C-alpha cells in the first residue's frame, strides 16, 4: 500500500477514535487530514491533528514510510514564531527546525512534530514579556518564574499520542533536552536512541544556550574541551552575526 493510502486510512480510522487517553489528563488525539507537502528541505507529507486538551492544530511533517516503522528519526519541535518565522537570533529554534527538516528530508524516513507550544508553553505574548525581563538582565528561567510560570510549561502527552496514532513503534529522538525523553517514555513512547541536535551558538543566543545547559540540564557542553563534535557543524544560516 502506498504511504498516501496508509495515511488516508488512518484519517478514516480516527473519525470516531476515542480512547482512555494518555497521562493523567487523558489526552486523546485524532489525525484529521493529510496532504502532500513538497518543501525546500525535501519531500514531505503534512498531517494535522485534533486533540481534546487544547484548541491547537498540532502538525506532523512526515518523510517516507513511517507507519508501522521502528527507530524512526524524530524531531519534536516547539513553535517559536520569533525564531521560526522572523529569524530571531535570541534562540536556536529556527536553526534546529531547518536542520531537522533537511536532515530528515535526506533520510529514508522520519518525522518532525511541530507542536504549538510557543514559548515553552506560556504563549507568545508571555514569551515577549519574558524577553523584556531578559533585556533587563534576568535569565530565561528567572524571567519565566518572575511571570508566575514554571521554567517549562510543556507537556508532551499530545505528541506521544500523535506518534501512537501514526503507528510509530519506536523513535530516535533529535534533542538535547532530557525532559523530552523522560516525558515521552512515561507516556509510553519507546525512545530507542537520542540524536544530539546542537548547532553553533551566535553572539545573541550564547547566554540563552548556556542557561539551558546550566539551569535546565540540557546536554550542551560549553566548558569541556574539545567541544562536542556537533557544535562544529557548519553554520546553517549564512551570514549569521557572530557565527564562528
Ligand atoms: N519562555 C521562554 N520560551 C522561550 C525562550 N526562548 C525560546 N523559547 C521557546 O522555547 C521553545 C524551544 O525550546 P528550547 O528550550 O529552546 O529547546 P527544547 O526544544 O526544550 O530542547 P531541544 O530538543 O534540545 O531543542 C520554543 O517554544 C521557543 O519559543 C525564552 O526566553 N523564554
Ligand atoms: Zn525560538
TrEMBL record:
<feature type="binding site">
    <location>
        <position position="175"/>
    </location>
    <ligand>
        <name>GTP</name>
    </ligand>
</feature>
<dbReference type="InterPro" id="IPR000926">
    <property type="entry name" value="RibA"/>
</dbReference>
<dbReference type="GO" id="GO:0009231">
    <property type="term" value="P:riboflavin biosynthetic process"/>
</dbReference>
<feature type="binding site">
    <location>
        <position position="180"/>
    </location>
    <ligand>
        <name>GTP</name>
    </ligand>
</feature>
<feature type="binding site">
    <location>
        <position position="140"/>
    </location>
    <ligand>
        <name>GTP</name>
    </ligand>
</feature>
<comment type="pathway">
    <text>Cofactor biosynthesis; riboflavin biosynthesis; 5-amino-6-(D-ribitylamino)uracil from GTP: step 1/4.</text>
</comment>
<dbReference type="GO" id="GO:0008686">
    <property type="term" value="F:3,4-dihydroxy-2-butanone-4-phosphate synthase activity"/>
</dbReference>
<feature type="binding site">
    <location>
        <begin position="75"/>
        <end position="79"/>
    </location>
    <ligand>
        <name>GTP</name>
    </ligand>
</feature>
<feature type="active site" description="Proton acceptor">
    <location>
        <position position="152"/>
    </location>
</feature>
<feature type="binding site">
    <location>
        <position position="91"/>
    </location>
    <ligand>
        <name>Zn(2+)</name>
    </ligand>
</feature>
<keyword id="KW-0862">Zinc</keyword>
<feature type="domain" description="GTP cyclohydrolase II">
    <location>
        <begin position="34"/>
        <end position="196"/>
    </location>
</feature>
<feature type="binding site">
    <location>
        <position position="93"/>
    </location>
    <ligand>
        <name>Zn(2+)</name>
    </ligand>
</feature>
<dbReference type="InterPro" id="IPR032677">
    <property type="entry name" value="GTP_cyclohydro_II"/>
</dbReference>
<dbReference type="GO" id="GO:0008270">
    <property type="term" value="F:zinc ion binding"/>
</dbReference>
<keyword id="KW-0342">GTP-binding</keyword>
<comment type="similarity">
    <text>Belongs to the GTP cyclohydrolase II family.</text>
</comment>
<feature type="binding site">
    <location>
        <position position="96"/>
    </location>
    <ligand>
        <name>GTP</name>
    </ligand>
</feature>
<dbReference type="GO" id="GO:0005525">
    <property type="term" value="F:GTP binding"/>
</dbReference>
<feature type="active site" description="Nucleophile">
    <location>
        <position position="154"/>
    </location>
</feature>
<feature type="binding site">
    <location>
        <begin position="118"/>
        <end position="120"/>
    </location>
    <ligand>
        <name>GTP</name>
    </ligand>
</feature>
<comment type="function">
    <text>Catalyzes the conversion of GTP to 2,5-diamino-6-ribosylamino-4(3H)-pyrimidinone 5'-phosphate (DARP), formate and pyrophosphate.</text>
</comment>
<dbReference type="InterPro" id="IPR036144">
    <property type="entry name" value="RibA-like_sf"/>
</dbReference>
<keyword id="KW-0378">Hydrolase</keyword>
<feature type="binding site">
    <location>
        <position position="80"/>
    </location>
    <ligand>
        <name>Zn(2+)</name>
    </ligand>
</feature>
<dbReference type="GO" id="GO:0005829">
    <property type="term" value="C:cytosol"/>
</dbReference>
<keyword id="KW-0686">Riboflavin biosynthesis</keyword>
<keyword id="KW-0547">Nucleotide-binding</keyword>
<keyword id="KW-0479">Metal-binding</keyword>
<dbReference type="GO" id="GO:0003935">
    <property type="term" value="F:GTP cyclohydrolase II activity"/>
</dbReference>
<protein>
    <recommendedName>
        <fullName>GTP cyclohydrolase-2</fullName>
        <ecNumber>3.5.4.25</ecNumber>
    </recommendedName>
</protein>
<dbReference type="Pfam" id="PF00925">
    <property type="entry name" value="GTP_cyclohydro2"/>
</dbReference>
